[in-house]
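Researcher: Here's a chain I'd like modeled. Treat it as a single chain, no partners, no ligands.
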Amino acid sequence: MPGFEVFSVVFLFAVILATGLQAWLYQRQLRSVHAHRAQVPPAFAEKIPLAAHHKAADYTIAKIHLGRWALLYNTILLLGWTLGGGLQALAQTWQTVLPHPLWLGVVVILSTLLISSLLELPFGIYSTFGIEQAHGFNRTTPALYIIDKLKGLLLALLLGGPILTAILWLMQYAGEYWWAYAWVVWMVFSFFVMWIFPSVLAPLFNKFTPLDNNELKQRIHTLLQRCGFTSRGIFIMDGSKRSTHGNAYFTGFGQNKRIVFFDTLLKHLRPEEIEAVLAHELGHFKHRHVQKSLLVSALLMLGGFALLGWLAQQPWFYTGLGVKQVSLPLALLLFVMVMPVFSVYLQPAFAYFSRRHEFEADDFAASQTNPADLIAALVKLYEENANTLTPDPWYSAFHESHPPAPVRVAYLQSKLATT
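Model: Modeled as a single isolated chain. Structure tokens:
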């Protein structure tokens, strides 16, 4: 069984290496936040109180501790599903009930995902009702938490079930190049979900009401006209229903775009600061960041499907991961499970391009509004959301899609001299 031994050892080594890397990054972040907890960084000394800085540090430290335990737990689960024979046992159990290969594959994958979600649930519960509650952010009730989970499960079945069935059918009956057809189907499905998200999916979880502040609405409409941006409306989302964290975002694409502000955001920012935040978001639109991200995602998905198409034909891929027989549905499941172990090293590249997009959006915002207003808005958001002001550079490079607070504020301050 040389193939089994070789790939099993390779996989186990990759798991240990990836887990060790993440643990090292957590330790670096923990050390950095601890080391700077006693004093507000000079750039923020006059803007953020020491008590708020302490809160951000303690909040970050609590999340790191939870993240480290979750990392260990998820690593054990991954090894249990693969080398421990969990997937093999589950597939054999269902095979006695559902002999048809297509429906067997659908049920095995869905049941695996359901069991995994249930096993990971304690960490989600502790994050919401432990960490978020202790630091004053949580407003989710246990009843609402359960309802959200049930809605998410129902949507996963209604949307995920059909697309999963379609992909498995293509894998079994579409021939050698099934992976190319599956990629096309997946991309069509992804665009469909993006299209219906603003008007169909998002309202299932939150209430969206049109902006009724006439002064702010006029300010925003003027900015939109100046930037050549059209949308289906400006909406306020009841984010305070679940959390005190504030945010703003664009959703949808084409003619179905929406601008969404959390109600918690509007409570803390002045109109000119809200305009600056929106100008930043419009910068993403002007620089076509969404389209660029979609293109990169599409190419990566194509490469992923092609790689899966090859791996699904290799017996060692199954035996090396604890599965005794060649099974296309299990190939898909194994691929989804193990790819993060090998792709973790790509995270800095993705984070780099994301942060570069943020800088470009800040440039645009500075050209359309006063950079001082965006700085003021960001500082308020850092304080309200308890974002650490002293992240470790390596941890940030792997985990943060936005530039670290000191770097971003310094960048915007450099714009003040040119405006």
